[in-house]
Write a structure and sequence with these properties.
Layout (H helix, E strand, L loop, with lengths): L10 H27 L7 H12 L2 H43 L5 H7 L22 H11 L10 H14 L30 E2 L5 E2 L15 H16 L20 E2 L2 E2 L16 H20 L35 H22 L7 H25 L3 E4 L2 E4 L16 H15 L5 H4 L9 E2 L5 E2 L8
Antiparallel strand pairs: 1-2, 3-4, 5-6, 7-8
Length: 470
C-alpha cells in the first residue's frame, strides 16, 4: 500500500493511486468475509436456551439472554454481509475510474500482493487489518477502516480519495468510455443487489429487517470528470457517512466510547447516515451499532455469574490470519485431510473471482453479463459461502490449540500450471471429493462448478463447456 499523497498528484502518481484504491477496497473484503463466516447465525434456539438455563437456573432470564444472543448474532452477520456487498461495489467503482482514466484494473496483481495482517496505507504506526472472527477487537478494527475521522494519527480512506478528487477536478483527462471499447460495469444491470437472504435479520418479535436502503447507490458509468467524482463520493458516503462528524471519544481502557443504548436500541446522530440514502447507516455507523451493542451485551453477560463470554455463544473459535499451510495435508494414518483440500479450492475460487471481475473490463456485453452473473455470483454466493460455512465445522491444532478451520483468502497461482484456471479448480474439486465424497455435488450437479464460465488468464472466455457431469 502507498501513503496518502501530501501534494497534487502527477499523472503517474494518479494511475498508481487508482491501483492503490482498488487494492485498498479489496483488502477489506477477505477481512469482512472472514468475520462473517465466523458467526453462527442459525443455531438451534431450544438447544441454546437449555445451555443458558443450565448455567443460571432462571427460566425467564434464560429466555431473555437466548434472544439477546440470537438477535445480535443474526444482526451482526447481516450488517457485515451488507458491507461486503457494498465493498464489492466500491471495488467496481474504483475499477471503472481506472478503466475510464487510463487502463483496465489489475485485480490479480492486487490479490497476489495482498498479505495479512494488512494496512490501508504505508505507515509503521498504522493499525493492522486481520482476517479474524467477530469480537470487540475486530469491530474496533472495522471502525478504524471506515472512520470519517482519524484514529490518533491513522489516515482515513476519505482523506485518500479527497486527493484523487482534487486531481480529477483540476486535471484534463482523456476519458475512455464503454462505447469506445473500454468496458465498465455499468448501471441498469443486476450486478449488485443491496439486499438478499444473506442480509436480512430478525428482531426479537421475528420481524424481518434489511440493513441497506434501496436508494443507497449503485454502479456508475464513468465517462467524464463529473461521473468520476460522483463515483468516488458514493464510496465515501457509503463507507464513512457525513464528513466532519463528531470525533470519537476513548475510554480509559483505550476502547472507543460506545454510543448510548435506549430501550435496547443504539441512539445515532444525523451524521451517522449515508448521504445517499436517508434511512441507511454508513458502514462506520453499522459497525458502531454492532460495537455498541456488543459492548453492552459483553458487560451484561459478564455481570451474571455462571455465563460464558457473550461472543463464545455464537462465534466459532477461528484463528487470526490462518493459512492453508496450517492445515495438515494428511492425518496420522496417511489419509488426506479435508480442511487442507477445502482451503485449496476455496482459495482457487476466490482468486478466480478476481480474474472474472478483471475479465469484465475486457469483454463486451453479453459476455460480460454472463461472466458476472454465471461466474462471480455463483462463485461468491453458492461456492465460496459453502466452503466458508463448511470449513468452520472442521477442527485442527496449531501450537497445541484447537481451532475451527476457515477460508484463508490466499492468492492461488493459476500461472504455475498448463491447465486453464477452471480446469485447475475442477482438478482440486476431484481431489477434495476423493477425500470427502459428500462434495460429489461439485461435479455431479451442473449448476455448480460446471456452470462457471471458462475464463483464461488473458481474459478470453471459452464458450464451450469444459466438461460434462459424470
Amino acid at each position: 500500500m502507498k501513503p496518502i499523497p501530501t501534494k497534487k498528484l502527477t499523472k503517474k502518481e494518479f494511475d498508481d493511486h487508482m491501483s492503490h484504491a482498488i487494492a485498498l477496497e479489496l483488502t477489506t473484503i477477505p477481512c469482512y468475509l472472514s468475520t462473517y463466516y465466523s458467526i453462527n447465525r442459525a443455531q438451534d434456539q431450544d438447544a441454546l436456551y437449555e445451555k443458558v438455563l443450565g448455567q443460571i437456573k432462571n427460566e425467564k432470564k434464560a429466555k431473555e439472554l437466548t434472544l439477546d444472543i440470537l438477535v445480535y448474532a443474526n444482526k451482526s452477520a447481516a450488517y457485515t454481509m451488507s458491507v461486503v456487498i457494498e465493498e464489492m461495489l466500491h471495488l467496481s467503482l474504483s475499477s471503472n475510474i481506472k478503466q475510464a482514466s487510463s487502463a483496465p484494473p489489475d485485480l490479480m496483481a492486487a490479490g497476489k500482493g495482498l498479505k495479512y495482517p494488512a494496512s490501508l496505507f504505508v505507515d509503521p504506526n498504522e493499525f493492522k487489518i486481520n482476517r479474524a472472527p467477530l469480537s470487540i477487537d475486530q469491530l474496533i478494527v472495522f471502525l478504524k477502516i471506515e472512520s470519517p475521522n482519524q484514529f490518533e494519527k491513522d489516515p482515513t480512506i476519505g482523506q485518500f480519495y479527497d486527493k484523487i478528487i482534487d486531481y480529477i477536478r483540476t486535471t484534463d483527462i482523456e476519458w475512455r468510455t464503454t462505447k469506445e471499447g473500454h468496458p465498465q460495469l455499468v448501471p441498469n444491470q443486476p450486478y449488485y443487489s443491496q439486499n438478499s437472504i444473506n442480509t436480512v435479520y430478525y428482531d426479537k418479535n421475528h420481524n424481518p429487517n434489511f440493513p441497506s436502503a434501496d436508494d443507497s447507490g449503485g454502479m456508475i458509468d464513468v465517462f467524464d470528470r463529473g461521473s468520476a467524482i460522483t463515483a468516488i463520493n458514493e464510496i465515501i458516503d457509503q463507507g464513512e457517512g457525513h464528513k466532519g462528524g463528531d470525533q470519537l471519544e476513548f475510554l480509559p481502557n483505550g476502547r472507543p466510547k460506545p454510543l448510548p443504548i435506549v430501550d435496547g436500541k443504539v441512539v445515532f446522530n444525523p451524521e451517522d447516515y449515508d448521504d445517499l440514502a436517508e434511512l441507511e447507516l454508513s458502514h462506520f455507523a453499522k459497525f458502531m451499532e454492532l460495537y455498541s451493542l456488543g459492548c453492552h451485551f459483553e458487560e451484561k453477560f459478564n455481570n451474571i455469574d455462571g455465563l460464558d463470554d457473550f461472543f463464545s455463544y455464537f462465534v466459532y473459535n477461528q484463528a487470526t490470519n490462518p493459512y492453508t499451510s496450517d492445515y495438515p495435508i494428511t492425518n496420522i494414518l496417511g489419509a488426506p485431510e479435508v480442511p487442507y483440500r477445502q482451503s485449496q479450492i476455496a482459495n482457487a475460487i476466490y482468486t478466480y473471482i478476481l480474474l472474472m471481475i478483471e475479465t469484465c473490463y475486457h469483454q463486451e456485453v453479453p459476455t460480460q453479463y454472463e461472466v458476472f452473473m454465471m461466474g462471480i455470483h455463483k462463485s461468491m454466493i453458492w461456492l465460496l459461502s459453502q466452503f466458508g460455512n463448511d470449513m468452520r465445522k472442521q477442527s485442527y491444532y496449531k501450537d497445541s490449540i484447537s481451532y475451527a478451520a476457515s477460508v484463508t483468502f490466499e492468492y492461488y497461482s493459476f500461472e504455475d500450471n498448463d491447465q486453464s484456471p477452471k480446469a485447475q479448480i475442477i482438478a482440486l474439486a476431484e481431489e477434495l471429493i476423493s477425500a470427502d465424497s459428500s462434495y460429489a455435488w461439485l461435479m455431479n450437479d451442473p449448476q455448480y462448478l460446471l456452470a462457471l464460465p471458462d475464463v483464461s488468464l488473458d481474459h478470453k472466455v471459452n464458450k464451450v463447456p469444459l466438461t460434462t457431469p459424470k
